[in-house]
Design goal:
Blueprint lengths: L11 E6 L2 H9 L8 E4 L10 E4 L1 H4 L9 H7 L4 E3 L3 H13 L8 E5 L2 E5 L7 H16 L3 E6 L2 H8 L7 E3 L5 H5 L12 H9 L5 H5 L3 H8 L1 H11 L15 E12 L2 H22 L1 E12 L4 E12 L2 H12 L8 E13 L3
Parallel strand pairs: 2-4, 7-8
Antiparallel strand pairs: 1-6, 1-7, 2-3, 5-6, 9-12, 10-11, 10-12
Helix pairs in contact: 4-5, 10-11, 12-13
């Protein structure tokens, strides 16, 4: 029992489901186990599309998420390529997340296959809590997850990636120098390819080397906000709270044509269908909108957006379709179209 005036030491868990989409497919089709499996687009590696996920057998061939399906096929033509079945993955996601409520109500949902939990106030050991989580997920879905436990979200997420699949890593404050600092700098959340390239140009490749830079240098290189973030993160410092509830700021849908199109009827039908999907998403989320934005990407990758804000909040398909077509009229369709997108923003909760 802790003294009333002494707060519990912060313990954050990051749960990351292992190769989630592929694992769900293997659960439904056990004959896939042991074979390289790639999930993406419509499942046809000869057509446009990107890899959503690949199982661990496929990853051995260098296949990773966001890779074009055609490249994945060149790397591993013997792989099983499957289309994305998002509804099946959402169902499995809800199932695994439902098991976590028996552990703690302090949960931040950050994606279809990952969550944070705050177990600071629980008396049990981290190992026992993770064992209960893994057993519950396994019983409910038949799937495995990897878990990281640390004093903050930053370190917990890094830890969950250290022993995959079906792993558990606990990072303590005393592990910062021996276990965090040897890792590549890109392992820190918020360091993308451009920052990684810049850091390499100034001789920084590991988190430890980043931690050796003074705050003044980081502020000079990256500005006040990002420089301070990098200074703290390299030392394992992060006070971000768990966000247990959030409101959507926008709802969007888009599609990439298998072949670039010039036919206005095809473009119009696609725009109407996307608008209908956005309206359905608004209804599902209990939202109305005032602003519709249409995005057009041409075959040369030039991308244009046009927005229209209407007088009153609405979730009417008819009104929003008219607004979308008003946006489309302001775009000169003088080239073949590769992609169309529709976004509803400026949202409010529906009344009643």
């Amino acid at each position: 029992m802790m003294p009333a005036n002494k707060p519990a030491k912060r313990r954050i868990i990051h749960i990351d489901m292992d190769a989630f989409f592929a694992a769900v497919e293997e659960q439904r089709k056990p004959e896939l186990r042991g074979s390289p499996v790639v999930i993406g687009g419509r499942g046809d590696p000869t057509k446009r599309g990107v890899v959503s996920t690949a199982n661990y057998e496929a990853r051995k061939f260098g296949i990773h998420s966001a890779m074009p399906m055609m490249i994945a096929y060149k790397l591993c033509p013997q792989a099983v390529f499957l289309p994305v079945d998002y509804e099946a993955y959402v169902t499995a996601s809800r199932q695994f997340k439902s098991t976590l409520l028996s552990i703690t109500p302090i949960i931040e949902d950050i994606g279809i296959d990952e969550v944070y939990l705050d177990i600071s106030e629980l008396a049990d050991t981290s190992e026992n809590i993770i064992a209960r989580i893994k057993a519950g997920i396994k019983e409910k879905t038949g799937l495995t997850c990897s878990a990281g436990v640390a004093a903050n979200k930053l370190l917990a997420k890094i830890a969950s990636d250290m022993q995959k699949p079906d792993g558990l890593t606990i990072l303590n404050e005393e592990d910062i120098e021996s276990r965090l600092w040897p890792l590549p700098a890109r392992k820190l959340y918020g360091i993308g390819p451009k920052t990684e390239s810049y850091l390499k140009n100034i001789g920084i490749e590991t988190i430890g080397q980043l931690a050796c830079l003074t705050l003044e240098k980081l502020l000079e290189y990256f500005g006040h906000s990002y420089g301070q973030y990098l200074y703290d993160s390299a030392r394992g410092i992060n006070e971000s709270p768990l966000i247990t509830h959030w409101e959507a700021k926008s709802v969007s849908r888009e599609t990439t044509f298998q072949k670039d199109v010039k036919d206005w009827q095809v473009i119009a039908r696609t725009l109407a269908a996307l608008t209908k999907e956005v309206v359905n998403d608004l209804h599902d989320g209990g939202h109305r909108t005032k602003t519709i934005t249409v995005k057009i990407r041409f075959s040369d990758f030039q991308t244009l957006t046009r927005a229209k804000t209407i007088d009153d909040y609405t979730d009417s398909e008819e009104y929003l379709r008219k607004a979308a077509f008003a946006c489309l009229k302001r775009i000169d369709l003088n080239k073949r179209v590769r992609l169309i997108g529709v976004r509803a923003s400026n949202l409010e909760k529906s009344i009643g």
